[in-house]
Design goal:
- The protein is built from 11 helices and 15 strands.
- By secondary structure, the chain is of the alpha/beta class.
- The chain has 2 domains: about 120 residues, ornithine cyclodeaminase, domain 1, CATH 3.30.1780.10; about 180 residues, Rossmann fold (3-Layer(aba) Sandwich).
- The strands form 2 sheets. The protein has an 8-stranded parallel sheet, sandwiched between helices.
- Helix 2 packs across helix 3 and helix 3 packs parallel to helix 4.
- It is globular.
Length: about 325
């Protein structure tokens, strides 16, 4: 059996960011409508890393074709010492009607693209319509597409990348030379000052301790937290949650693995009932949230299999 294989370049050509954001909107509408079967992802620790298995089935709907597939992600933090990427991933797409294998897709770029697109969708729905200042905490593999996504839905004039290492300066130089964002991009180590300046903030780190604090934020700020992916990891402190209106991509997934929420819940300092809505409710119009300049909005993205399978299906056609 020979299956077509879609490289990162193939995926980028087939799914530009604006279309990717629209596909994510469709995916979350389908999820809210009950058209998606999606177990909570299975995590399997190994001696050298963590493997995640993420299957999903999407029933045919008015905007999405029936799709069936699975993503497998391997996160090996020791790879950096070997000169290798930390994350490797592969998406397998099947024919929804018969289960026959249909295509393989490079999963690392697809993951970064769909994660960026979900951030773009949440920012589109929740952030200040006149937001011009974007801060991103972290300069890793997700950062560039996170910046591109926010710039696709808001007229961002300046981007500041917060990082302790040299990666921020390198990324800023690359983005400025590509002229993809139409914004001035710079690197900084001034986390608190940058947070106070920003209209939109993205946290894209692998930190186990908060890198962003509620007392740094001005009213009207929107935050997308996309980095922490286990119950023991967190990027924001409890004060931020208590100051903010909190939104998630999916309640079940968030309350199963989002350390940003689970850690303060376990400490009795925050409650799951404080979640305002999930992204499917917002995307479908079941819940409407008007921008309020006196409020902070916080979106926690866990990463869902429906995002991968919807994106893969859009690429393959």
């Amino acid at each position: 059996m020979q299956l077509p294989y879609y490289t990162a370049d193939d995926i980028r050509a087939a799914l530009p960011m604006t279309r990717a954001i629209e596909v994510m909107r469709q995916a979350f509408v389908a999820l809210h409508a009950g058209q998606v079967t999606m177990p909570v992802r299975l995590g399997m620790p190994t001696p050298d890393g963590l493997s995640l298995f993420m299957p999903a089935h999407i029933a045919a709907g008015p905007e999405l074709r029936a799709s069936l597939g699975q993503k497998v992600v391997h996160i090996f933090t020791g790879n950096s010492a070997r000169g290798l990427p930390t994350i490797h991933a592969l998406v397998t797409l099947f024919k929804a009607e018969t289960g026959e294998p249909r295509a393989l897709l490079e999963g690392t770029f697809l993951t970064a693209l769909r994660t960026g697109a979900v951030t773009g969708l949440a920012t589109q729905l929740l952030a200040n319509p006149n937001a011009h200042n974007l801060a991103i905490f972290g300069a890793g593999g997700q950062a560039a597409l996170q910046i591109e996504a926010v710039c696709a839905v808001r007229e961002i004039r300046e981007v500041r990348i917060v990082s302790r290492g040299p990666g921020a300066a390198t990324l800023a130089k690359q983005l400025q030379s590509r002229d993809q964002t139409r914004a001035y991009v710079s690197a900084t180590g001034l986390a608190e000052q940058t947070a106070q300046w920003a209209d939109v903030i993205v946290t894209s780190t692998t930190s186990s301790e908060p890198v962003l604090f509620g007392n740094w934020l001005k009213p009207g700020t929107h935050i997308n937290a996309i980095g922490a992916y286990t119950p023991r990891m967190r990027e924001v402190d409890t004060n931020l949650l208590n100051r903010a209106q909190v939104f998630v991509d999916n309640r079940d997934a968030a309350l199963h693995e989002a350390g940003d929420l689970l850690i303060p819940i376990a400490a009795g300092e925050w409650h799951a009932k404080q979640i305002i809505a999930d992204l499917g409710e917002l995307a479908s119009g079941a819940r409407s949230v008007a921008y309020d300049p006196t409020c902070i909005t916080f979106f926690k993205s866990n990463g869902l299999a429906v995002e991968d399978i919807a994106a893969a299906s859009a690429v393959v056609g």
